Amino acid sequence: MADATTPKWLNPSEMKAWRRYIIASRRLLEALDSDLEPHDVSMADYEILAQLSDAPERRMRMSELADQAMLSRSRLSHRMKVMEKAGWVKREACPVDKRGYFAVMTPKGWKAIVAAAPDHVASVRSRFVDHLSKADQVALAAIFERVGNELRNSDKELD
Questions:
Q1: pLDDT tens-place string over residues 5-62
Q2: Which of 1, 30, 32, 63 has the smallest CB count inside 10 Å?
Q3: What are phi and psi of 54, to 5 degrees?
Q4: Which class would CATH give 38-117?
Q5: Cα–Cα dist 49/103, whole Å
Q6: Terminal Cα-to-Cα distance of the chain (whole angstroms)
């Protein structure tokens, strides 16, 4: 009988699914990042700009943006410095919370994402979506919603 410290090792089918996911997802993210290079935008920058472009007045609290973009606050702060230097974003102090800041997309940032978006969408389509049937899309959406919800719930339990 296995005790509580013995790992439940992956069987060959589980290992194959896990390894294929890890390898494909890393290659996909590298390819998407590479496809954005002509725009001088990284995937991390694109995600931040995309979040801001969808936000009211193209502004978000830094803490909310970090959560939405799946970045640590220190990583977001680093990316913001790079993006501020490029002129794409600026930080504004929050008038009601002296410790809080807003990330605000500038007109130059809007131009950057508007220029990059068509190529990014084409890249996502050709490198990912076009290889999926409608059934695959539905299955993947359900799978990753379930995994994402479980991860969010376990993160909340740690807080």
A1: 889 999 999 999 999 999 999 999 999 999 999 999 999 999 999 999 999 999 999 9
A2: 1
A3: -90, -10
A4: mainly alpha
A5: 10
A6: 34
